[in-house]
Specification:
This protein is of the alpha+beta class. Helix content is about 55%, strand content about 10%. A 5-stranded mixed beta sheet has the order 1-2-3-4-5, sandwiched between helices.
Length: about 375
């Protein structure tokens, strides 16, 4: 009776212990978080020192005699005009006023606590009474208050209520409970607008515009799919290439009613002739590289959402104008419809971003 040949032994499969992997991941997470925190603290210290020194120079200049006093109220606007041109929004007139007030409030550098950020000191300079200001500063250091926590304590007159209360323990316990509801995580370096302004990163504006662009693409994608007029999503940031260069199209759809590809290019800055020419180039390249037999000519939609106006422009190849007028317009949204949707979405996104920025700013506004 034949016997089944033995199965050759297979190589053992190694399974990495989950505990070891988790331990490694935890070590790396701690390492990266600590490094980011150290970097943030280092910039905090330099920023506070620089703001104090800027304020010192301004005050000393203002007190330098009649010739300098003649500048009067024109001094800060003149300085801001030059400094913002070279170093960015972090040194505009409003911030220069804060720096001057910082030096006037803390004229002795040795009395400045390096553990606190510039936003902390912006808040402390608003406290009129020197005793209260010193108390808030030392408590912020001792209790490791974030700038949001410090703003909360100042706003609720925590120091004054402690002085007046007969039950100081109850007031302190209430304050601790209120602070417990605040986010205790370290602020994100690249989303802190005060830090970005100081560093002059190309920066805060571009990051916000990048967020606007991504949000608009999300909403436009949903808008076209919900129209119910044959749109099918193909790709986002799809690459098309020539022999020497790569290009990326923001959104690509296929409309199965029209049997054509629809390309969308989104701009969040003022529209230029170069943008228009680029969209026309995309349409030609897509027709050459992606259009299949039986597909109708590709159509492009150039959308520009600038703060002063929204612009929508369709792009079709020469020779396809009649097809666009007779068939495409019956299915595709009109320029007015797209412009209205673009404006509405941009306003909603900017409002949400401004609210988030205000929260992250930790008391940045006066």
């Amino acid at each position: 009776m034949p016997t089944t040949p033995p199965v050759p032994p297979s190589r053992p499969i190694r399974h990495e212990p989950r505990g070891e992997l988790s331990a490694l991941l935890g070590q790396l997470q701690t390492l990266i978080a600590d490094a980011r925190l150290r970097a943030l603290r280092a910039v905090d210290v330099i920023q506070v020192q620089t703001c104090w020194q800027v304020g010192c120079h301004i005050v000393e200049f203002e007190q330098g005699g009649a010739a300098r006093a003649a500048y009067g109220k024109r001094l800060l606007p003149l300085l801001a005009e030059r400094l913002t041109h070279e170093f960015g929004k972090g040194f505009d007139e409003r911030n220069l006023r804060h720096m001057r007030a910082f030096f006037q409030t803390f004229p002795n550098w040795d009395a400045v606590r390096s553990e606190l950020s510039w936003t902390h000191y912006r808040l402390l300079t608003r406290v009129d009474k020197a005793e209260a200001r010193q108390w808030y500063m030392h408590e912020a250091v001792g209790q490791n208050w974030s700038s949001r926590a410090l703003e909360r304590q100042i706003g609720t007159l925590y120091y004054e209520r402690l002085l007046l209360s007969q039950d100081k323990a109850a007031v302190a316990d209430e304050a601790r409970q209120n602070l417990a509801m605040l986010d205790k995580g370290p602020r994100a370096f690249v989303r802190d607008p005060v830090m970005l302004e100081f560093l002059g990163l190309p920066g805060s504006g571009k990051l916000l515009e990048a967020g606007l662009e991504q949000g608009l693409m999300d909403k436009l994608q949903a808008f076209l799919l919900e129209l119910g007029k044959g749109f099918a999503f193909v790709a986002r940031q799809q690459r098309i290439s020539t022999e020497s260069k790569d290009f990326y199209i923001d959104l690509v759809f296929y409309n199965y009613l029209l049997k054509c590809f629809v390309l969308i290019d989104l701009k969040t800055s003022e529209l230029t002739h170069q943008d228009i020419g680029q969209m026309d180039m995309y349409v030609r390249m897509y027709d050459d590289l992606k259009r299949n037999e039986g597909d109708n000519p590709t159509v492009g939609i150039l959308l520009c959402e600038a703060k002063d106006q929204s612009v929508v422009r369709y792009s079709v190849l020469n020779g396809s104008e009649q097809l666009f007028a007779s068939r495409y317009k019956l299915v595709l949204p009109s320029e007015d419809e797209l412009r209205l949707e673009l404006t509405r979405d941009a306003e909603a996104i900017r409002l949400a971003m401004n609210m988030n920025e205000s929260e992250a700013d930790d008391g940045n506004e006066d």
